Amino acid sequence: MRGFFHRQSKFQPVDPDENGNDQSIPDDLWVKCPGCNELLYSKELNDNLRVCPKCEHHFRLRARERIAMLTDVGSFQEWSSRILPQNPLGFADGSGTYEGRLERTQRKSGELEAVIAGEATVEGKPLALVVCDFDFLGASMGSVFGEKLVRATEAAIERGIPLMTINASGGARMHEGLFSLMQMAKTVAALNRLGAAGLPHLSVLTDPCYGGVTASYATVADVVMAEPKAMVGFAGPRVIEQTTKQKLPEGFQTAEFLLEHGMVDLIVSRDQLRVMTASLLTHYENARVVAAEASAAVNAEAHGEDIVVSFHSMAPERAPDSAQTGEAL
Ligand SMILES: [Zn+2]
Known about the structure:
Elements: H1 5-8, E1 30-32, E2 39-41, H2 42-47, H3 63-70, E3 77-79, E4 92-93, E5 96-97, H4 98-109, E6 115-122, E7 125-132, H5 143-159, E8 163-169, H6 177-196, E9 201-209, H7 211-214, E10 223-226, H8 237-244, H9 255-260, E11 266-267, H10 273-328
The protein binds zinc ion (ZN).
Zinc ion binds next to loops.
């Protein structure tokens, strides 16, 4: 699209040895596509927004890669970047404490939490943006995740700009128990306030999107988009099959299946997301202008009625005036 992956390419050039031969072949020089099993050259895949050129399989992306792909260059300003997760329940499991897990994940992922929020422009149109990072504990929704989303929503209301969420998640973050589940109600309540302010929420569901995120804010959007073949659901298909003891239909929980059943409004391939977003933002902007004009017209009409009313109420007073004038003439 715009070659932005060049900046973030994992490919590191290999120093040639004395004879000018490569000493080794980097592991990530070639990638096997899970969609068609073809071997793809990493650089070519990155240049193609990590979409397989053979079968259009959409590989997963990190949050910052998505932001770079979607927004105008240099326009992204991050919000709430220093809110840090805590361990309110003193949770620990076989692999140690939740704090320890967070610390390791932060070091490995280079992020402090599973969601990145901020504002940016897309083709010059401003929007608030909240993007999940699946590499951070499966982008599970804990209290910081919810708080960052709510703060971004409130900032969108304050600035009068739309909100876009790009979602991928394994669901609620079990390490935070009820604090995590509370985020479902908290985020949806914030989105209700956004709707009441007449501002749209555009949601993009990417692979995989499950659990409390699908069951809350991600699917209560004005427009729900999904990447091709993204898996979206609440519980996974195997759990549903085991629980209901029924065979699930083919393609169950794919974006295409959800589109057919009315859970998703649009399937948008990665290279089209920027254009589609700009187009939706233009539609909503126009709708707001039309609504503002209609409201101004209604106000003017109401004002006009006041004039009529006051004219009528003034009429008896004017009549004697005219009569007086008449008399004077
Ligand atoms: Zn492929």
